[in-house]
Amino acid sequence: MGDEDGISVQATATTFAVIEALRDRNHAGVTELASELDLSKSAVHNHLSTLVALGYVCRTSGSYQLTHEFLRLGLATRERNPIYDAAKSDLRTLAETTGEIVNLVVPEADHGVYLYRVGDGAHPIPEGGQVSLHASAAGKSILAFRDYDAVDAYVDTHGLPSLTERTVTDPATLRSQLRSIRDQRVSFDRGEQTPDWQCVASPIVVEDEPVAAISVSGPADRMRGKRLEEDVTGLVVSTAKAIELELLDSSTGEA
Amino acid sequence: MGDEDGISVQATATTFAVIEALRDRNHAGVTELASELDLSKSAVHNHLSTLVALGYVCRTSGSYQLTHEFLRLGLATRERNPIYDAAKSDLRTLAETTGEIVNLVVPEADHGVYLYRVGDGAHPIPEGGQVSLHASAAGKSILAFRDYDAVDAYVDTHGLPSLTERTVTDPATLRSQLRSIRDQRVSFDRGEQTPDWQCVASPIVVEDEPVAAISVSGPADRMRGKRLEEDVTGLVVSTAKAIELELLDSSTGEA
DNA sequence: AGCGGTGTTCACTGATGGAGAACAACAGTT
DNA sequence: AACTGTTGTTCTCCATCAGTGAACACCGCT
Fold first, then answer.
1. Is the CB of A31 under 7 A from strand C?
2. pTM over 0.85
3. Which one of A49, A179, A212, A229 is at 20 to 30 Å from B152 when CA atoms are compared?
């Protein structure tokens, strides 16, 4: 039962608190974690030794760290989605041609996830990380292909929190952007999520459902003017279309 | 405290049983999991709703599945290891030149883990999966650079279980193989782990510690004779050496 | 050796996770 | 449109168990 936040198994919540703390600091000791998480040393010790027994944590040189069992879990969540296999090679060539970072974003419970990334250089959000649907090129191109009501519901529950001064915070403006994105199959992000970071994205739609979006992104000074608006844009849209077809082929061809 | 298997937090064990069941069947319902795991529906429900609240599971179309938070955790465990960045690009070119599957294997608590893989086609063990040190080319090349005592300890605790009829099960034979691997910096696997599957591997050693191994692997009919013994072998060894140097540069250069 | 700092163990107990049955919400069938 | 078999959800109650806090063991230091 517990409080009305849905967490009925407290122990599990603590376990994941430990896991996340371990992820954030790569490796840590019992006392360190105990003081960070406001738990007794023995509690932390119990959770850690359980995780060790299960194979999700291991001790190396006197310090605990997450094992690669999480890599196995994580890659499994990626590979169960057919879009991954369909998009992989196209994204690589897109990254080579543009020389920029290329992302594959999929929707998941009212946010987007960076499922796969190609290309060198830093990115404001790590691969596997989440992105809000209203404040990113990829997110908006997914939102654009959802029902009118679904967008309403999204705005109602989440609002349009501004992440930078350029984030779209007005519902009407968002609506009009979404309409044009739906027409053009392209969406842009000029610093709406991260200052000085720009994106071009195009959705992948199967049976009227937006199943993913691909995006090319880079620092503002490299993704400027004609290069952003035309050169890259064309490539992104055509690549998205190509992936869409590949996805259709693989689903019908193998049935 | 519970039995003497080290699991002191039962709830955490059940949670991960649920998680692993979800991974294995991609998505599932409450009753299905309950009967599979021999738990009451309410117990499973509690764990699932907790995981949902924590963001590690989500409901889609009436069925529960793992979210990509696990991808974030998993990729984090990969990226904390400097070998990953150092090896990535060299492995890609190696995969292109050979046309075969290329693996990066790192040691972790008495087994190896496929940390990264490049190349198309099926592989007996998934990326992120584990491999025993005595029955794989990569594993043996890691074992070869461990202390004499460490190898003893390994054999004592694990024995040399045979996975195929060609697995090395005799400690003396293993010793002699390890010696020559240490000299040549190459190890071979001709169906020792999976029937009709062959491998060439070379270790990456830093300060006398084997931190990883790279391997090229493929079905026996493609990795035969001179191609295996000479062409590929040379490339694997030189690539490993290159990665080793790159690793040294990055650690000294950035300090 | 002694000392600060670890990680580990121990017994106790109040909170809590789990069984089981009753309830609700569906989907498919006739 | 009612029915039926199934699934997910809620509920209550009790035994279990996770967590506290202190004592213990184990380092690496100087």
1. yes
2. yes
3. A49
